[in-house]
Design goal:
The chain is α/β, with parallel strands linked by helices and 152 residues long. It has a single domain, classed as Rossmann fold, CATH 3.40.50.300. The chain has helices at 10-23, 40-51, 88-93, and strands spanning 2-7, 29-33, 65-68, 77-81, 102-106, 119-126, 132-139. A 7-stranded mixed sheet has the order 1-7-6-2-5-4-3. It starts with a strand and ends in a 13-residue tail after the last strand. Bound molecules: adenosine-5'-diphosphate and magnesium ion. Magnesium ion is lined by residues 40-41, 59, 106. One of its GO terms (biological process) is tRNA threonylcarbamoyladenosine modification. It is found in: Cytoplasm. Belongs to the TsaE family. Keywords: ATP-binding, Cytoplasm, Magnesium, Metal-binding, Nucleotide-binding, tRNA processing.
């Protein structure tokens, strides 16, 4: 199922992330794609806040993956910058514990194929009026009902 939304500003992007983050759980794999400046890190920050993990969520530019422990007893958030990974094999080499964490991959398209049969892909595009168009595509039973309809 593919869902669309228009996000008018950075605050709304973060807010969308908070709602999504509240509903994520261990085993979830979320992939963010979109050009530089699209709003991937802004959305990631909201997701971290909604999930309740220790921040700050920033672009993981100097490390390939950063683990943010939960502030409660929820799953940690593993934030991956796949832009610096050359191939899916390198992502595989990170040996991430997908079962125990929420894994969030920026620039992950084409890098995560085959890692999980269930993932949520979020594609962000910048419109001429500087709003963002967000396309959500979930695969597997986990996302069969979509993301937007179940509220949050
Ligand atoms: P990315 O991680 O994709 O490179 P960032 O999350 O760093 O992008 O955001 C880039 C810039 O775009 C930020 O300054 C952010 O405030 C701005 N921005 C403007 N409008 C929006 C919007 N609707 N959603 C998200 N970010 C936006
Ligand atoms: Mg970024």
């Amino acid at each position: 199922m593919i869902e669309h939304l228009v996000v008018p500003d950075p605050e709304a992007m973060e807010e969308f992330g908070v709602g999504l983050g509240r509903r994520l759980r261990a085993g979830d794999l979320v992939v963010l794609t979109g050009p530089l400046g699209a709003g991937k890190t802004t959305l990631s920050r909201g997701i971290g806040e909604g999930l309740g993990v220790r921040g700050p969520i920033s672009s993981p530019t100097f490390v390939l993956a950063r683990t943010h422990p939960s502030l409660t007893d929820g799953p940690p958030l593993v934030h991956v910058d796949a832009y610096r990974l050359g191939s899916p094999a390198e992502l595989d080499d990170l040996d991430l514990d997908y079962e125990a964490a929420v894994v969030l991959v920026e620039w992950g398209a084409g890098m995560v194929d085959g890692i999980s049969d269930s993932m949520l892909e979020i594609r962000i595009d910048r419109a001429a009026d500087d709003t963002r168009s967000v396309e959500l595509e979930g695969t597997g039973p986990r996302w069969a009902e979509g993301v937007l309809r179940s509220g949050g």
